Amino acid sequence: MRCYACERQDTSPCTRCGKNYCPDHGADLCSSCLDPVVAAPSSAAFRIALFALLGVSVLALWLLVRPPSLPGGGGVVLEPDATPDFTPGLTPDTGETLTPTGSADGGPQPTVTLIPDDQTPAPTPVPTVTPTPAPIEHLVVSGDTWSGVAEQYDVDAETLASSNGYSVDEVLPLGVTLIIPR
């Protein structure tokens, strides 16, 4: 056989197109297959790559403008319940008067004489402060549902979801710590 480009004896066929060629017109591929016009990808491949790049750029821009919210970061801040302020009461006045006796120069020790008033006020009870119990927290793991967690703590599922800033229609996000209402 002869080379497709000249009249010399061919040495091997092109692995791409199958044409026979001589050593002057190619190595693994023939000169025709190595031509830049033939070797370049088609315009359809360029269009597909351009549209893919455009789509990814639009997605990246959208994520920069409006990033997705983080788990547990729904923007709801739970304020703790108000705790009663404790103000210690005044010590009740018993109406007793102390009168010192003796001298300050080392003489006899002073004695205390109690003189009661006619009316002694009743002592006012000091209010006891009951500490606010620590909130119950539940870490959401795989398989948890609103109704399952609510049943576990004997609470209504709707109340549980709304007190944590969610709705029972939403999927329970994994890894979120839920505050169990009392």
**CATH C-level name of the domain at 136-180:** Alpha Beta
Count every helix, treating DSSP H or I runs of 4 or more residues as helices. 5
Find the structural class using helix and strand composition.
Answer: alpha+beta
Number of strands: 4
Just name the CATH architecture of the domain at 136-180: Roll
Series of secondary-structure elements, N-terminal to C-terminal: EEHHHEHHE
**Unreliable segments of 5+ consecutive residues:** none
Helix content: 10-25%
Q: Give the overall silhouette.
A: rod-shaped
Reported by name, the CATH topology of the domain at 136-180 is Membrane-bound Lytic Murein Transglycosylase D, Chain A
* Overall pLDDT score: 75
> What is the CATH homology-level superfamily of the domain at 136-180?
LysM domain
Largest sheet: 2 strands, antiparallel
Strand order of the largest sheet: 1-2
- Cα separation of the termini: 93 Å
Task: Output the radius of gyration.
Answer: 46 Å
